[in-house]
């Protein structure tokens, strides 16, 4: 079996092999000149054997026969020296990273031997003879600790054994290919793998002794090559035992080391290695496996109790079944390389079946693409989009998902590229890439030319986006909905990491919006629905769809029928910020300052700013450094105020995400946090009341409390996190006490209770009155002053009802007297919510926001 290159990507470090000097055989290397003309004319060479540190070294003493001419220079020329044992030690122990790669290398050599025979038999049919089918068989023997690999290929003569196995770094396959190129008539497409000439020596990764028995159809004799790991020599002898004769081909027997017997002499382990590395080799590979079968046997039927066996009568038997184990050959590479076929000849069922077998999946893929590229780099590929996303969130950002399997001439090379062939955001794509001429290193672990890798990467990415685009444009909308649910996060990650492919990624994005809260909307659909005066794509980033719907930032935009995209996933905001524009439309965050809606009334805005300029300054003075400034808003219609972020800082959503980082830098939070701007709604009653307060009672403590509570409320409704939740909670509790205190007839002080002091009860009553008095003037006095006027009393009662106060806190005599005067119907009407809503604009303000309305005149 002609040795070929090594091909695996997975190798484990090995301990160095000590080389003890035995006898020196005719071992040659590529560094030593062959007989008959290695050195140029005029140079003689004598070879001396020297012992160095328990090793033998071959040294060449070259003498220049004649003086170099002036043109050649006056420097002295030397020949390279090679320490054979050290060179072999480096190849075995420093070339590969995993021991298991030895099987891939030897199977590849066997495949090359079979390919050579098939190619040569076209012109020389006699070479096939009666050697049997072209196949490879692998038989592990756990009892003896051996692995035997047999092929029915071209075999080797004695001279070829010396030339191929006795010369390190000489590839028989490379010489064969060179001969084919020189003979153009024979140059056909071939799948030969070897090129480096060192793959055979990977056998010493696990073997302490290697025996190669080979029979070439060109020779009548069979030869045996034998070498041990700790020797710098080998032995070739003629096979004389008829039991070991081969009809044709090569048989390699590895005598495993003690440490490797239990792993690599196990039949299941060998089968799995073949499936991983050599599943798509063009020849059948059989492995010796233990199997089980059900057989039918006859057993003696036991005699029944009380019955005596009669002499001479045949015993009764019955047929039963049992399971027995046996050993037999099993085909290990039944899956065929589908990418080698024409895509027009492969059905969808065949693609799905290949996907399930190659990647151990149980669901059909969402889509696939099968293509061949030619030019500077030629390769074939099949790519799949899985039917289900990764269950582990770590796989979303893990570039080493092992989903892309690289083959060279159908032999597995690697699936560990760390983002070299596919970017991280497309790591969910699964597929196979096969090429015949990739520039690999000797151990077949690394793609050497980065330029070639970049070309392959570019073409694979383009084909992947074409495949996703086809799903999005298909008539079955459920397919892309399923794709987006599973892999939408990956594409959003691509917006951040791959600026060069923004034009391909952006049309594939989907979001919920204010006009379509049930179905996802594309950016193209958003632009189609834009109004004539709309110049930007508006979005709002929140933590959930529910909070986005109720955000105060939306009020004026919804009123003007402007669609807003809802970014509800943590990655959404960063992805959109990296896009910046789409089809010449800028992305605008409606939670930040200087929002322009395109149809502002400049005159009205200027008048509102002039009217509430004093209020803005007064609120800024009350809040201090909590806000950068206070201004009149153009985005509110029903809320009294909202807290927006500065243009260049974090939004409320981003600030929340950064605080939640497990390894976040808290020192950067203050630096990156955007400035906060309080925007007020000039049309809201609370703001009008505050405007009156800043003019008539700027020092009022009650007004200050309203401003603080207003700010805390805006903080939460705008998506920010309060600095002191407990303090805010106390304010809410106080407000709740005002709203529900005594509403359902709770008696402050029970009559007849001897344990309650009358003075204490009166003090509690006065305390409640003062705490419930949101206005500067106590409610009790105002009611006493106006109780004689039934209409005014009803109005005052309405005010108390709206404020959530209970009139039972006022003198009972006055209440009963006034209730009789105004009548029960009007009294009950004051508690009616509809009536209260209608009368809201007539409720007098403590800061004289408007005149007191007389109910009788209405």
Automatic annotation (TrEMBL):
Keywords: ATP-binding, Chaperone, Nucleotide-binding
Every Histidine kinase/HSP90-like ATPase domain range: 98-260
Span list, region Disordered: 295-319
Keyword flag ATP-binding: yes
Entry keyword annotation includes RNA-binding: no
Entry-linked Gene3D superfamilies: 3.30.230.80, 3.40.50.11260, Heat shock protein 90, C-terminal domain, Histidine kinase-like ATPase, C-terminal domain
Ranges annotated as biased composition (Basic and acidic residues): 303-319
Family the UniProt entry places it in: Belongs to the heat shock protein 90 family.
PANTHER family: HEAT SHOCK PROTEIN 90 FAMILY MEMBER (PTHR11528)
Protein name: Histidine kinase/HSP90-like ATPase domain-containing protein
